[in-house]
Structure formats: C-alpha cells, structure tokens
Design a protein that fits this description.
single chain, mainly alpha, 2 domains
Length: 393
C-alpha cells in the first residue's frame, strides 16, 4: 500500500492478487468465447484462482502474476482474432503481445507457439489475409520491444549464465521437481481430462486429430505444448535449477484451466447429478489445499521473519553474495540503517575481501546460489577467506 508511510511489505502481494483476479476474469471470458456455459466458465476460473501454487506466487513481489494476466489476455485476443479477424482484434493481439514481451522474456515462448499453431490454423483454412494480419501484429510487437527496450537480449544472456553443467542424477531430480510442480497446479485439469477420456472412450484420439487445428482445441494444445517445452528446457539443464514452480508455469496454466472449463462443459452437460458431485469435489479439494498451503506458508514466513531480525547483529558487517533484485532488496528490508553492507556476486566478493577492506571483526554472511553464477564451491571459498583473515562469521 502507498500512503503517508510509503510502500510496505503488503504492497506487492495485494497488487499480485489483483492481477490474479484479472486472470480469473480472462479465463471466464475465454471459456465463454469458446462456447462454454457460464457455470463451467465460472468453475474453471475459481479453480485457477484458488490454486495453491498460484496463491504462493502472489507472495513474491515479482512480475510473474502480471505475466500470467497478460498471457491469458493475449491468448483471449488471439482466440478473438481467429474467430473474428478484424482491425480491432489485430490491435488487441499487437498490444497484448507487446506488453507480454516487455513484462518478461518467457512470454516469447508462448507467443512463438501460439503464433505457429494459429498460423497453421489460418493456412489450413486458406485465410491468407488473416494470416498476414496476425503475422504483422506479432512482428510489430517484436519491433516495438526492440525500440522500447533495446537491451532485451541481456535477459537471455543472464539466463544462459545461470545454467548448470549437465549430470545424469540431476535429470531425475529435475524430472521429479517438474512433475511435482505440474501436478500440484494442474491436477483439476488432469481429472477433467480423465473424465473426458471416460466420456468419449476410444473416440478421444480420433476426435483430437480431427479437430486439433480448430480454435476450440487451441487452449489445450498450446497450453500443453508450452508446459512441455518449459519442462524439456528444465530437464535438459537449459534452465537454471530454480526455474521451476508455479511462477514459471503461470505462462501456460491459465490456458489449461480454460481447457478445463471446456472439458467440464462437454462431460457434465448430460449428467447433472454426476456433474454436481464432480464440481463440488473439485472445489472442496482446491479450497482445502489452498488453506493448508497458506497455513504452511505463513508459518514459514513467521520463522523466516524471526531469522531475519538483523538488528541483533548490531556490531557486524553484512556480506551478501548477490545483487539480484529477487534477493538484495528482500535482505536490505530487514537490515538496520547503521549496519555496513557489502554486496556482490562471489567472484567480486573474493576480490574485494582480498583487499583489506574496513570490515568489522564480526561478519554476518548471507549466501544465495540462485543467481549470478554463484556456486557452493564459491561459498566455501568466501568462507575460507574469512577464516584466513581472522573474521568471526
């Protein structure tokens, strides 16, 4: 909140919640655009909003909640264009894709997949004019990114610098993390898909291949493809070890919840009593999981707040081996104004520490291995320098 006291720790989460609410509204509208009944659209949007992983994303003051909102509005604008090609829908595609690219470089993945599949759809239907319009809109959004943010490529360079060397046992660990993340978010979609298979049985494969290029199938096709590509990049060590979880999958999960609304609309239409129990069960489980995960999160935050009460270290210097915006501001929030702070990545710190800087005898060392090429070996090297120079850490 912004007021006489400025910004406090609730500002980011409250803003993120508003973005999540906008995302839920977009899921509801997208379902309606695809012919779903209002009740199926509402259930899908509520299930996404209450997802435990998505709720945890709101607690972090980063742009991922905004990314999810822009991603689903971009998807809705693409669906709107494919259903009704016009100047208005083309402008919506342009502005939403431009905002997505300016928000986070991950958006380029969704835009590429959606553009490719949509282009195939238009070419199959021999609508060359609409194909040219949509390619123009997406191309102009990339041009706008280059003009507004010419150093955008640095995000990709930073991504490459954070990747780790490949090793076989790490593949299984990453595979487990990816499976855990997707299942914890997408379990309602998986149940909806199982119900769909049971409803259509042997016809499900032929139905999919007959209609894969149609607009109504796009949310599932593009959402699943985007999740698959994110997973492949992660499992093959092309993504950093920390780049998995709700905030990294939020690019595609809203689309898959749109497909959940479609599944519920197809399966439950003719079975009212059965459908009531399915919807009630899904909502009840989701609410229980959300309450349980929120309780665990609050307990963890309370524990961390007690640990980060740095005022008890009044005679110390703080050494922080990260200047990443996801680490440094969060640490500095708890640092007393009188405490000296030295911040830099591990290689910078090692050079600085070798020059007899004016540090207090007691040092509080805070280490984070998520960014800047920091390693466990680098952490030990810094600690060794402290020990060699006689600092108390």
């Amino acid at each position: 909140m912004v007021g006489s006291k400025g910004i406090d720790l609730t500002t980011g989460p409250l803003l993120n919640i508003s973005f999540h609410l906008l995302t839920s509204i977009a899921i509801f509208v997208s379902c309606l655009l695809l012919g779903c009944k209002s009740w199926a659209s509402l259930v899908a949007s509520i299930l996404w909003f209450l997802s435990e992983q998505n709720m945890l994303v709101t607690a972090e003051t980063r742009q991922y909640s905004l990314l999810g909102a822009i991603a689903i509005y971009f998807s809705a604008s693409m669906i709107f264009f494919l259903n009704r090609p016009s100047l208005l829908s083309t402008l919506l595609v342009f502005f939403s894709s431009m905002l997505g690219l300016l928000t986070h470089y991950h958006f380029a993945l969704l835009m590429t997949i959606f553009g490719f599949i949509s282009g195939l759809h238009l070419l199959i239907n021999k609508d060359k004019k609409a194909f040219l319009w949509i390619m123009l809109a997406l191309g102009l959004s990339v041009l706008a990114l280059i003009i507004i943010h010419p150093n955008f490529y640095m995000s990709f360079d930073r991504q490459v610098s954070q990747t780790q060397s490949f090793y076989l046992t790490g593949v299984f660990r990453r595979l487990y993390i990816f499976a855990e993340s997707t299942i914890s978010i997408l379990w309602p979609v998986m149940i909806g898909f199982i119900l769909l298979i049971y409803h259509y049985r042997s016809r499900i494969i032929s139905i999919f291949f007959d209609h894969w290029h149609e607009v109504k199938i796009l949310p599932f096709t593009i959402g699943a493809l985007t999740i698959a590509v994110i997973g492949i990049l992660y499992i093959s060590f092309l993504s950093p070890h920390h780049a998995m979880g709700g905030k990294y999958l939020i690019l595609a999960t809203p689309l898959l919840f749109v497909s959940l609304g479609q599944m519920l609309n197809l399966v439950i239409t003719e079975r009212y009593r059965f459908g009531f129990f399915v919807i009630f069960g899904l909502l009840l489980i989701q609410v229980c999981l959300s309450i349980f995960s929120t309780k665990l999160f609050l307990e963890k935050q309370l524990y961390l707040s007690l640990r980060t009460d740095l005022s008890i270290f009044s005679n110390n210097s703080l050494i922080l081996d990260s200047v990443a915006r996801g680490v440094l501001p969060r640490i500095l929030w708890h640092v007393p104004p009188f405490m000296p702070v030295w911040a830099g990545y591990q290689d910078t710190l090692q050079k600085m520490l070798m020059k007899n800087q004016n540090l207090s005898e007691n040092i509080l060392y805070v280490s984070n291995l998520s960014y800047g090429g920091n390693t466990l070996e680098g952490r030990y090297a810094v600690l060794k320098i402290f020990d060699t120079k006689g600092y108390n850490t």
